[in-house]
Amino acid sequence: MTLRLARRTLLAGTASLAAAPAIAAGRALAQPSTGPHGALDLVVAARAPTTPTGLTLSGDGRMFLFMPRFDEKTVFTAGELFPNGRVVPYPSEAANRPDPARPEATLFHVPNGVFDRTNRLWLLDAGLMASSGAPVPGAAKLVCVDPGTNRITRTIPLQSVVTETSSLNDLRVDVRPGREVAYITDQGQTGEGALIAVDLASGRAVRRLAGHASTRSEEGVLKIVEGRVLLKRAEDGTTSPIKGGANGIALSPDGARLYYTPLMSRRLYAVATNALLDAAQDDAAVARTVEDLGEKGLTGGLSADARDRIYLSLQEFNAIGRRDPDGTVEVLATDPRLIWPDTFWITDEGWLYLSSAQANRRPEHNGGIDRQEPPYAIFRMRIDAGPA
């Protein structure tokens, strides 16, 4: 791997979140760049109730955030973000009230959501009521929302492909002629991860590569965020290592390869998508299509553009990186306000959006003290390509 620092890297110093550019009334639409090509702009300071790990935009520019239900303080898990920073429950407040008696009809723990090519919003519900513990029976699911009516139109259960230690994390949906497929990462609460593929037409879901080296948390990986080693830190002062299997996920432009990486791993992997849903292939056959693409740094979210370049949330450096198809990794921008950069979204107009989740400041990493400082920064950068 070759690592280089882009000349356009932007260091924003200690600029306040209050310096977000003015945005016209209405939805949170993409705005003209306030800096040169490649500069990192603060779009909005989101007054989310807790850690916003997920981010997506509709075709007409509406912005949505997703806040996993790490604890009982999470008042809603899916929300729409408005230009003034306000975040409201989406698709409704009622839908965001988890009800174990109606697990298929309410939202429990949504780490991410994405729009497909037909502008349908897909929500990934891990079905959890906290950061640990078994998913609520029947609560793990994919939920499709029509943004035109703000109504849920379909629910696909995932009960058959989750385990008692599952922690579903990220989602990509590939809709094109002859193919409607969703791909999901399960990072696992013990670091034993997996990939999940879902045929959206039939609802058939399969769990793949469970326990494979490419989906499993690597032992001994040291992750430093904001100058501090990331650990689980209990109130009594005891510590334990972070474990995180398959986490970030991205699709190649032709949909033939799925890129992914464990949270606690510096390596990037790819697998052939045609193998994932093929009932004739067992896990060993799927594993033979896995490629180790080498070092890419410690990341959370991934995204690919139309030129098959993969964007990297470089959490140790408060930075955005990009991996070219030849394996070269470039740091595009750094900013001290990029605290735990997480999920990317690329628009058709060539805007790269990114959430700053502050997950390292959560109580479980700080002896029970919540060190998050809302509002949460949402950034964007102009790039020279559209989405994959």
Summarize the structure in words.
The chain is an all-beta fold and 388 residues long. Helix content is 2%, strand content 38%. The chain contains two helices and 29 strands. The protein has helices at 273-276, 283-287, and strands at 3-5, 40-46, 54-57, 63-66, 78-81, 87-89, 112-115, 121-125, 141-146, 151-157, 168-176, 179-186, 194-199, 205-208, 224-225, 228-229, 232-233, 239-240, 246-251, 257-262, 267-272, 291-295, 299-304, 310-314, 319-323, 329-334, 341-346, 351-356, 376-382. The strands form eight sheets. The protein has a five-stranded mixed sheet, with no helix packed on it. The protein has a four-stranded antiparallel sheet with strand order 2-29-28-27, with no helix packed on it. Strands 3-4-5-6 form a four-stranded antiparallel sheet, with no helix packed on it. A hairpin with a 5-residue loop joins strand 17 and strand 18. It starts with a strand and ends in a 6-residue tail after the last strand.
